[in-house]
Design a protein that fits this description.
The chain is of the alpha/beta class. It contains 15 helices and 15 strands. 38% of the residues lie in helices and 16% in strands. An eleven-stranded mixed beta sheet has the order 1-3-2-8-10-9-14-15-13-11-12, with helices on both faces. Strands 4-5 form a two-stranded antiparallel sheet. Strands 6-7 form a two-stranded antiparallel sheet.
Length: 444
């Protein structure tokens, strides 16, 4: 150990790559970083409400020479687990639910040196693009406290943006990594299908687990640790397509359009081919026709499983209004309906590939609008039609890449005139995660 103790402002300014380097060089100890993370959590918690449990005794870093040595990290309160730790999924139905094993995801991160310091807030059963629950309240955006931090990885997004931790776990079933990344000014990579193993998860192939970070190089670092399989060969010249027209028959915010076009222009000036493809490559109604068969059915499966374990009733005393509406919608599906959604998933993936023939990377906004007002897309909505209408207005560019299983990356693209972050999305075919990160690094 050399030099003075790290100050909290120095800690907040550093990404995971820099912090792990300091630990490996014995400039700081993992215990110091945990103390700094805890101090920053105490400073910010009353404002942002991002963390639902801070561990009094985290498992300290055993590998001080690993790629993530000593890096404080938060676990999203849904999905991959730590043995003996709570997994309450933002729901009264799951209060007190304790994991019986540590997942591959967290075993791998801990072996690389990461220190899990707590769990981050999620909407009930990760259904929403805003993190607001009856159980834990609303998670607020550090950039403006009357706005949402997004969802469903909103607690992770708010905590990383506020400097509590440099990175946190996240998952994405319909935009839930990319939405908080855009809302909070972060880097959010949804890996391609099965790039990062998720035992017992994945929602039939539309969901992926990864992380939220403040830097592109951190996203690359975590992909090195968690990614499995081969990648596409990097190319000197990329053919970009750009689409800023709203994909769900609404209007894309003008400042979002300008930011997206500015990113496209940077690639054009770098010598790449960039063409405007106009509207959506496949119509939104086709994608959304799979929603209940590919999305809602897994919400229903979670409810049934958690209720069986907890012994609690499935009613308004344990579940929010929209969850009950989702259960009703699923109950109306037949086996044939679910099968048809799965068949359509394959057909839509093929249609997307054909529509973008000749395009290597597609540039779009991440969100249709930069601001996600609290109370507009949460579990207290009791009309599925109203909910999906608002969902489509805010998040028209997300779900298709879950259905298709393509990697999709949200990167910071400046702020609105009022200081709200804007995210721009880069999406590509299977195997292109490293290529997307390389392109993003050029812009950074």
């Amino acid at each position: 150990m050399t030099g003075p103790a790290m100050r909290i402002d120095e800690y907040v300014a550093l990404d995971a790559t820099a912090l792990s380097d300091l630990v490996r060089r014995r400039v700081v100890r993992p215990t110091e970083l945990v103390e700094l993370a805890c101090a920053r959590h105490r400073e910010t918690h009353a404002d942002i409400n991002a963390v639902v449990e801070w561990y009094d005794e985290p498992d300290l870093c055993a590998n001080v020479d690993g790629p993530l040595a000593g890096v404080p990290f938060l676990r999203k309160d849904y999905g991959s687990t730590e043995e003996g730790r709570l997994v309450e999924m933002g729901s009264r139905l799951a209060v007190g639910n304790v994991a019986t094993q540590t997942s591959w995801f967290f075993s791998t991160l801990k072996a690389a040196g990461a220190v899990v310091v707590g769990r981050s807030a999620v909407p009930e059963l990760i259904q929403h693009g805003s993190t607001e629950t009856t159980l834990f309240g609303a998670t607020r955006n550090p950039h403006r406290l009357d706005l949402s931090a997004g969802g469903s990885s909103g607690g992770s997004g708010a905590a990383v943006a506020a400097g509590v931790v440099p990175a946190a776990s996240a998952s994405d079933c319909a935009g839930s990594i990319r939405i908080p990344a855009a809302a909070c000014g972060l880097v959010g990579l949804k890996p391609g299908r099965r790039r990062v193993p998720w035992e017992g998860g994945g929602w039939g192939g539309i969901a992926e687990e990864f992380v939220l970070t403040r830097s592109v190089r951190d996203a690359r670092l975590f992909l090195d640790v968690l990614g499995r399989g081969s990648y596409a060969v990097e190319r000197n010249s990329i053919r970009f397509g750009v689409s800023t027209k709203h994909w769900a028959n609404s209007t894309t915010d003008p400042e979002v359009v300008t930011a997206t076009e500015a990113i496209a222009e940077q690639f054009r000036l770098a010598g790449h081919s960039v063409i405007d493809i106009g509207g959506p490559p496949v119509d939104n109604e086709s994608w959304m026709s799979t929603w209940h068969g590919l999305f809602t059915r897994f919400v229903a499966a979670d409810v049934v499983s958690v209720a069986a374990d907890s012994g609690r009733p499935i009613d308004s005393t344990t579940l929010e209004p929209l969850t009950l509406v989702a259960l009703e919608a699923f109950s109306e599906l037949s086996v044939a309906d679910v099968t048809e959604s799965q068949i359509l998933q394959g057909e839509l993936t093929h249609s997307l590939d054909e529509s973008l023939c000749g395009i290597d990377v597609l540039i779009t906004p991440t969100l249709g609008r930069p601001e996600i007002p609290l109370g507009t897309i949460a579990g207290d909505v009791d009309s599925m039609e109203d909910y999906l209408e608002m969902n489509n207005a805010l998040f028209p560019f997300s779900y298709p890449f879950n259905v298709a299983g393509w990697p999709s990356l949200s990167i910071p693209a400046g702020d609105t005139k009022s200081g709200i972050p804007i995210g721009v999305q880069l999406s590509a075919r299977q195997g292109m995660e490293r290529e997307l990160l390389r392109l993003a690094e050029v812009l950074a």
